[in-house]
Amino acid sequence: MSTLRQQSSEDRDLVALFAGLDTPAVSDALDRFGIHGQALGIVPLADYRQAVVGPAFTVRYVPAAVPPGTVGDFIDDVAEGDIVVIDNGGRTDCTVWGDIMTEYAALRGIAGSVIDGVCRDVTKALGSGYPLFSVGRFMRTGKDRVEVAAIGELVSIGSVRVTSRDIVVADANGVVFVPRKRAPEVAEAARRIEETEAGIRARIGNGMSLREARKALNYHLLQRRG
């Protein structure tokens, strides 16, 4: 196996900011700042019990030329802990991710894959627990149908514009993307939201009505831009 690539210290620091957060909290924080980062139509392969977080390793596919180019060799360049983010234009007629990619990614410590398109060989991913998020599943190969056009460039995933090394948070609810430069403030806001919601749960557990608990902690203002 080729030498595993390592994330930068800045990558690791940004990922650590989101430890323990889920996509609903991050989504609410994005709304607070007016940032569109929720990937519509991208769904988890399974009901994952915790979120995966990592920098985006972006890949863009296009229809294959003649002769066709490569489809998956880029994975040797993905750093341990990264999340592969593939823009296949939402195509559902051919896959860009299968069992060999799943096995190799898991061996290399890649955190997960997000695909604006379909995946296949899902039994392998389900059995290993490798996190996959996509538009759906379909068995037809992408070889000779699509090819890699760009790596490390701007892509579009579920109507979200994603830049290489943006922060990805994905869980059983779906996928959100956080612009890298905004990651610290988004993470901080998401933690405040989580703390407020924990406070509401504590109050209703002690007998307060939901209306009273929400009012006491300004719940309806959490996502409001300010």
Q: How many strands appear in the DSSP assignment?
A: 10
How far from one another are the termini? 49 Å
Structural class: alpha/beta
Radius of gyration: 19 Å
The CATH architecture classification of the largest domain is 3-Layer(bba) Sandwich
What is the H level of CATH, i.e. the homologous superfamily of the largest domain? Ribonuclease E inhibitor RraA/RraA-like
Roughly what percent helix?
A: 25-40%
Shape: elongated
Quote the CATH topology of the largest domain.
Glucose Oxidase, domain 1
Largest sheet: 8 strands, mixed
Report the sheet-strand fraction.
25-35%
Which stretches of 5+ consecutive residues score pLDDT under 50? none
- Which oligomeric state applies? single chain
Pick out its properties.
about 230 residues, alpha/beta, Glucose Oxidase, domain 1, 2 domains, two-stranded antiparallel ribbon, 10 strands
Describe this structure in words.
It is a single chain. The protein has 226 residues and is α/β, with parallel strands linked by helices. The protein has two domains: 9-180, 3-Layer(bba) Sandwich (Glucose Oxidase, domain 1), CATH 3.50.30.40; 187-221, no CATH class. 29% of the residues lie in helices and 28% in strands. The chain is built from six helices and ten strands. The strands form two sheets. Strands 1, 2, 3, 4, 5, 6, 9 and 10 form an eight-stranded mixed beta sheet that branches. The chain has a two-stranded antiparallel ribbon with strand order 7-8. A hairpin with a 2-residue loop joins β9 (167-171) and β10. α2 (23-32) packs across α5, α3 runs parallel beside α4 (122-128) and α5 (183-205) packs across α6. The protein starts with 8 loop residues before the first helix and ends in a 10-residue tail after the last helix.
